Amino acid sequence: MLVNGVWKENWQPVQAQDAQGRFIRQTSTFRNWITADGSPGVTGTGGFRAEKDRYHLYVAYICPWASRTLMVRQLKQLTDLIGVTVVNPQLTDQGWRFGGYPGAGSDPLNGAAYVHELYTLADPAISGRATVPVLWDKETRTIVNNESADIVRMLNSAFAGFGDRGPDLYPADLAEQIDDLNEQIYSNLNNAVYQAGFATTQQAYDEAFDRVFATLDALEDRLADGRRFLFGERLTETDVRLFVTLVRFDAAYQGLFKCNRTTLREMPNLHAYTRRILSLEGIAETVNLNHIKAGYYSIKALNPNGIVPAGPQEI
Ligand SMILES: N[C@@H](CCC(=O)N[C@@H](CS)C(=O)NCC(=O)O)C(=O)O
Fold first, then answer.
1. Spatial CB neighbours of 123, under 8 Å, sequence gap ≥ 6
2. Domain for residue 305, yes or no?
3. Atom of ligand 1 at shortest distance to CA of 133?
4. Cα–ligand 1 centroid distance for 186 (angstroms)
5. Which of 8, 14, 87, 131 to mutate to test the pocket of ligand 1 (most atoms within 8 A of CB)?
6. 41-69 tens-digit pLDDT
7. What is the pLDDT of residues 250-292, one digit of tens each?
8. For the domain that residue 148 is a member of, what is the CATH number?
9. 147 in ligand 1 pocket by Cβ < 6 Å?
10. Cβ–ligand 1 contact at 89 (below 6 Å)
11. What is the reported pLDDT for 218?
C-alpha cells in the first residue's frame, strides 16, 4: 500500500480484519462526481463536467467492482465517450501492473507501470491501497472517483445530454428498493464471498459462508416467478451488482474462496439469469474468464503454488 505517496511492503490481500478474523474492505478516497454541468455531486468537489474524451477508466477484468463500471459504460452506450485501460490480472508485489497479459494494455495517458502511480500523480502524499476501478480526468490529471458504486451512478445520469444512452439503471420509483437490495447484496454476497475467502478463523468463514448461501437461496426464490431481472422487466444497477459476483462464482469463489455448498450451475434460476445478462449487448466483452481465473488464483496467500484451474471454461 501507499504511505505518504511511497509504496511500502509487498502487496497483501487482507486489508484489515476485526478481532474475530473478519476481512474488512478499505473505504474509497476520491469521491468526486462527473455531472452534466460540472456542479458538485453528492460528495466531493465540482469541476468535472460531462464531456466527450475527457475521462478514462482504469479497470481489471478480474475485479467485480471495476467490472460494474465497465458494464455500465456498455449499457449506457458510453464507449465512444470514455476510454478504458485494463491492467494485468495478477497482483504483483506492487499491486496492479499494466501491460503484457493478453487482453491487458499499457497506460496510454500517463505511461504508468503500476496503478499506484496514478494515485501518487493525483495526490503525491496519498496513503492507502491503490485499487481499481479508477476514473481518471485527463484535463486536470487527477482521479475523479475510485468508488465503483459512485461511478455506476454517475455514469447512469451525467451523460444524458449526449443523446439516448441506454436504460435508466436507477429509476426514481425504484430508488428506495434498489438502495435496500444493493445493501443486502453487497454485505451478504459481493463482499461476503471475500470474507469467506480471506477469513482467518473458522467462525468468520462459517458466518460468511452461511450469509452467502442464504442470500443466493433467497435470490433463487425471487427469480422463480420467471421475472427477467430482479425488479421485473427493467434492468437496474442492482442487477449489475449481482451479476458481477455470479459470473465469477464457479470460476473463483466456489473453489478458491471455499463457497462450495452449491455451484451457480446448480441454481437454475440464477444460472439462467446470469446467462441472460451476459447475452445483453456489449456485456460479454466485459467478462474475461481467463483474467478472472488467472487473477484470483494468483493470490499467493490462498494459492501458494499459483496453479490456475483449467475449468470452468464457460458460464
Ligand atoms: N470500494 C472499491 C473497492 C475496489 C476494490 O477493492 N478493488 C480491488 C480489486 S477487486 C483492488 O483493487 N484491490 C487492490 C488492493 O486492495 O490493493 C470499489 O468498489 O470501487
1. 5, 29, 142, 143
2. no
3. 20
4. 14
5. 131
6. 999 999 999 999 999 999 999 999 999 99
7. 999 999 999 999 999 999 999 999 999 999 999 999 999 999 9
8. 3.40.30.10
9. yes
10. no
11. 98
